[in-house]
Design a protein that fits this description.
The chain is α/β, with parallel strands linked by helices. It has 6 helices and 9 strands. α1 links the parallel β1 and β2. α1 crosses α6 and α5 crosses α6. Bound molecules: glycinamide ribonucleotide.
Length: 205
């Protein structure tokens, strides 16, 4: 069955390993999507070079270039729309987005977070979980709202915390799950199988 490719835009701020995992899954024919553009808010983000190497179009939109957050977000939304993006994928994009931005892509902005939300939102989630002493952590893919990692959860993957773990080894094991889960969720969205009812999200068979 031929499926139309979902045009996605990936927003990054740093390393870009999730962006690459998505690009790999698309290239392997596992996800019916195409990456229209990768946009970084940080000019030196390693993710930019990695994307460029794959032949993916990249852009840098630095907040500092704009007089206000609103002006920055207007430019960001315009760039995404200009490329025909229908799904905005945050992959290590370390910036909150306003409702005005989100309204332009209703239920079409997703994020990955390296903890089992609603536990440990915000920065350094893997360390937060390790310090708290939980026995399981993991990652969550969720729709983005105005809050910090608070939108409806689409999918989660669980990772055990081992007695021998330090935050870095836990983060590594979580990252492997992130790289599996994020392409999977994009696949479900591309197939039109994701249904949102309030805070609850269902994946149709
Ligand atoms: C990932 O672990 C992602 O879950 C996390 O940043 C890392 C980016 O890595 N995101 C957050 O903490 C968002 N609250 P990557 O650039 O290699 O994909």
């Amino acid at each position: 069955m031929a499926t139309e490719l979902l045009p996605i835009g990936i927003l990054v701020s740093g390393r870009g390993s999730n962006m690459l995992a998505i690009a790999d899954a698309i290239a392997a024919g596992q996800v019916p999507a195409c990456i229209k553009v990768v946009i970084s808010d940080r000019p030196g983000a390693p993710a930019l070079a990695a994307a460029r190497q794959r032949g993916i179009e990249v852009m840098t939109l630095s907040r500092k270039q704009y007089p206000s957050r609103a002006a920055f977000e207007t430019a960001l939304a315009a760039a995404l729309k200009d490329k025909g993006v229908e799904l905005v994928v945050l992959a290590g994009f370390m910036r909150l987005l306003s409702q005005t931005f989100l309204d332009q892509f209703p239920q079409r902005v997703i994020n990955i977070h390296p903890a089992l939300l609603p536990a440990f939102p915000g920065l350094d989630a893997q360390r937060q979980a390790w310090e708290y002493g939980v026995k399981f952590s993991g990652c969550s893919v969720h729709f983005v709202d105005e809050g910090v990692d608070t939108g409806p959860i689409i999918a989660q993957a669980v990772v055990p915390v081992l007695d021998t773990d330090i935050p870095e080894t836990l983060a590594e094991r979580i990252l492997a799950e992130e790289h599996r889960l994020y392409p999977q969720v994009i696949k479900w969205l591309a197939e039109g199988r994701v249904e949102v009812r309030g805070r609850r999200v269902f994946i149709r068979a």
